[in-house]
Design goal:
Distance between the termini: 23 Å
Number of domains: 1
Shape: globular
Order of helices and strands: HEEEHEE
Largest sheet: 5 strands, antiparallel
Number of helices: 2
Structural class: alpha+beta
Helix content: 25-40%
Length: 95
Amino acid sequence: MEQHNAEASFAAALKANEYIEQGMLPMWTIYDHPLDFPAHYVVRMHVVDGSGEPKVYRFGVVCLSLEDAREQVPVYCARLPREPADDPNIVETWL
């Protein structure tokens, strides 16, 4: 795992705490080789605000394996399996 990924993960966790304090719900979605990074797994933070619609945070953490991707998710999160209607590249979401 490259150093910038660890820094990005830490920055996302700090930002998540800000969102929580504002009454918003941050979540992390792990993607398996999405179109923009076809050779990697990507973890993206989404935030649900008062509108109820998730908004994607401005960056993702690029990882070489699913295990590496899971390590980027804050330890206090719980895993949700993918839904049948989810994008096929979604592995799981963490709240």
